[in-house]
Amino acid sequence: MQRKRLFNVEGDDSLINRKMIKGNVTNLFNLNNVKYQWANKLYRLMMENFWIPEKVSLFDDKRAYDELTPAEQNAYDGILSFLVFLDSIQTNNLPNISDYITAPEVNLILAIQTYQEAVHSQSYAYIIESIIPAEKRAYIYDRWRDDKILLERNKYIAEIYQDFVDERNDKNFARVLIANYLLEGVYFYNGFNFFYNLSSRSLMVGTADEIKYINRDELTHCVIFANIIKEIRAENSTFFSEDEIYEMFAKAVEQEINWSNHIIGDQVLGITPETIEKYTKFIANKRLKDIGMKPMYEGFDENPYAHLEKISDTNGEGNVKGNFFEANVSSYNQSTAVEGWDEI
Ligand SMILES: [Fe+2]
Ligand SMILES: [Fe+2]
């Protein structure tokens, strides 16, 4: 693939010739000249979602942490270790993707996404510093060094990203886009629900509030990648191999279930190996439907954690394009109120 020029004097910014990849734009940003309107809407929503981690008080969580069971503490710490990895690699890798996207309106929202991933890293540092005892803090960042299941997950995603950095061809780019979609759309959510589960029992409520902000951002990131994938599929029907998408989904689901069983296990009230499997396959089916593909797990149509939606404030997480954006997401906005928000 050809990396786009920083300023392309041969470029043509007309909407009729604009393409998601392999287009020929000047790379000037003109928000009044936008082909992909969903990107414009997401831009505004993401800007309205501005938040500052330290505005959430974690004072009560410090004491509540000491009252968690050993299994809950282990899950709390381990999920943070995975989240630290996910947001780090996103911040590092998103510019590599943007270099090959030839829709300036989409490059702009990828830039905002990158800064939001940085804020997420800031929030983990704040949570770890405020809640985790000093002697355990470094281990949150280093756990992958001796937790083989965590290392395997981290390496799997990192290798897909690295392959494209090393060899910039269509196949590797297609895999990077799907991997991003899986990361933003599947990998976070068993972890998020663990925090909502604690919060539903009045435990670690401040942490759950932080996670709500992160969750809200991740859902917009999920929509970005769903839309990028859909547009490319519409413009070039052979760019993605459906078999490969299904294979990657199957692997992601398997890893997510293994990891969640490993780190949460069956000792946390409200979460069992069965709910983990049900939830992971349910969310994977949703994500497949959102990019116009058939679900792959028959009978997994229900969210076993639906009762946690009132905590997460996302009103039907999984239904990214519907309920989430129609819901009252401004209820925990730190910036000015969101104005009317249409379905993307
Ligand atoms: Fe993030
Ligand atoms: Fe993200």
Give the biggest beta sheet: none
Overall shape: globular
Beta content? under 5%
Helix content: 55-70%
**Which CATH class applies here?**
Mainly Alpha
The DSSP helix count reads 13
What would CATH call the homologous superfamily?
Ribonucleotide Reductase, subunit A
* Strand and helix order: HHHHHHHHHHHHH
Query: What class, by secondary structure content?
Result: mainly alpha
The total beta strand count reads: 0
Radius of gyration: 20 Å
Q: Any low-confidence stretches, pLDDT <50, length ≥5?
A: 315-331, 336-344
Termini, distance in Å? 29 Å
Q: Could you tell me the mean pLDDT?
A: 91
CATH architecture: Orthogonal Bundle
How many domains comprise the coordinates?
A: 1
Small molecules in complex:
fe (ii) ion
Molecular structure report:
By secondary structure, the protein is an all-alpha fold. The chain has one domain (63-332): Ribonucleotide Reductase, subunit A. The protein has helices spanning 37-48, 59-67, 70-98, 104-131, 134-142, 148-166, 170-187, 189-200, 205-235, 242-263, 273-290, 309-312, 320-326. Helix 6 (148-166) runs antiparallel to helix 7. 43% of the residues are buried. Mean pLDDT is 91; it is low at 315-331 and 336-344. One fe (ii) ion is lined by residues 87, 90, 117, 120, 214, 217-218.
Summarize the structure.
Helix content is 63%, strand content 0%. With 344 residues, the chain is mainly alpha-helical.
